[in-house]
Amino acid sequence: MLNNEQKVLSWFRDNDVLVLDRGFHDTANTLNRLGLQVAMPGFLHNKKQYPTDEANRTRFVTKNRWVIESVNGKIKQWKFMTQIIQNSTIRFISDYLDIICALINKYQFPAVIDIENGREIAMNMREMLTTENRLQTRLAKHTGTTSLHWSKHKAANFQFPPLTEENIRDLTFRNIKLIA
């Protein structure tokens, strides 16, 4: 990529974001130096949990990565793509991938059926990306700290409110209708 030998950089447009998994963490700085914006889940680095803003950002990236992993899974259903690929076939891999993807697009169901609902979910997630953690704020207000000491209780001693399917969908960003 640094030499742009295959004109890879011409594939990108202004404001494109590369949504990567953690396996690319060694390349993130190089990609940034090339002027590319990178999004990848965070690392805990010896912490027990992320701060709210980092947890929200990581969830946002992970939700977007799901689509990529779904497509990768469909590609890996093809025997050729599950094995070690010989160096002599690398020059043809792009053609093979085009053929496999064309067959997937023609004969398999799409991973996401309701794209408009997906856009709504993305907009909600984007809005919530910078939303404060109200529970954490409330705890800090009442206890003077955001850390808690947990104790065990029996669920039978509590009455939980019933949740409708609509309640659950709202809590989970109205999950996109999927076909497994």
UniProtKB/TrEMBL annotation:
Entry keyword annotation includes Metal-binding: yes
CC cofactor: a divalent metal cation
Pfam families tied to this protein: DDE_Tnp_4
Keyword tags: Metal-binding
GO molecular function terms noted in the UniProt entry: metal ion binding
Domain DDE Tnp4: 12-105
Keyword NADP tagged: no
InterPro entries in the record: HARBI1_dom (IPR027806)
Record protein name field: DDE Tnp4 domain-containing protein
